[in-house]
Amino acid sequence: MQPSVTHEGPDLVLNWGNATMRLSKVHEHSDGYTAMFHIGILGVAGLDDGPIFNSTVQLAGSRSKADAARACEKRVPDGFDWLAMIEFAANLVIEQMEAGGEIEDLATGEADMETRYVVPPLLIEQDPTMLYGMGGTGKSLLSMGLSAAIAGGLSEFCGMPAYVGKVLYLDYEGNAASGRRRLQKITTGLGIESRPHVLYQRGEASLPSMAAGLARRITQEKIEVLIVDHAAIACGGDPNAAETANAYFRALRSLRLRASLTVAHRAKADGQYPLGSIGWWNGPRLIWRAIMSGGDDNALHVGLANVKANEDRKAPPIALKILFGESITFQREAASKQTALRPDISTPAQIIAAIQELSVGTFSPSRDEAFAHCHSLNGGIRDDTFRRSLQRLVTAGQVRERNGRLELLTLPLKGSELF
Questions:
Q1: What is the mean pLDDT of the chain?
Q2: Positive or negative, the Cα torsion across 213, 217, 224, 263?
Q3: What is the pLDDT at residue 58?
Q4: What pTM, to 2 d.p., does this model score?
């Protein structure tokens, strides 16, 4: 009798009717593959339902498989060819591992020409998103704010459209009590009547080690969005090693979520990559860097710079003001007002900001004055880049140069990098 075969997250499940095998935690070693076998029975006369074997098996090892079969025969001696069943399961896993992922013909099927987001442009669908920065830059607050908006059914968050779905917050720093307290304040600030059903789990094991069990929970609870806070602990190894990052993202992809956000602390202010390894840069398809632009006990000014975007053009920087008190409130503000974000603002937007800031009454700045203003805030801007960008603004009808002075003809739209 051939078993039915299904996948539950990264697990392979085989069902013979009265016997089931779940194979999880498949690992490749120098001498082949190993997997954790969870074997159980159901409806066998004279025996209790439940597990009869839970152990790691060397998939190509004759002795290892024979030992597993003998252990099953001691518990259930009649009615099953345990060795044949274990070998069938082991061979199936080996075949699937060596075949890799499913091959698809890209000429068939409908091509979705739109990059889809759960919260555009912050959180992309299907692929991993990362938010990283130095400590104290509001990353966890923003992550909980996104969770509340998505789970709470809000149509938007800080002017950005929000998808509605079930969220799991996997927290490696805090606890459920602090999570509830933070969510309550954010809920009040967002104007939601009661705390939304954000599912919370304290991270007690690394994401790679708990991926199989987490995948089952995600399927059972119909969870669509996962927040992991934060990566250095969740990865379960040396965060500076590329293989640790690679294993983390393999586990994350195996969960088959609509979207995921990984929060990471930047170890050094001048570090090239999050957590020091290129693996943390290569794994996500969308990366945002959080930058603190000032604040006090009552407010925090946070800039978000889109430093990597594989599926779309880089988004303009986003500036937020987080207000503290009886509630926690998120407000958009002009990115051009946050000095730390200036290098991440596009040159045309910097020119518009310079004209706005230097215009007083009927006086407007000259080309040289606008360039000097941009250069003082972003020393990296080049004269030829400035001139090309200014010409594009003139051609687009946004700026006019008259009598040696620059004048704005149209104001930036709400939600742009200047508002």
A1: 89
A2: negative
A3: 96
A4: 0.77
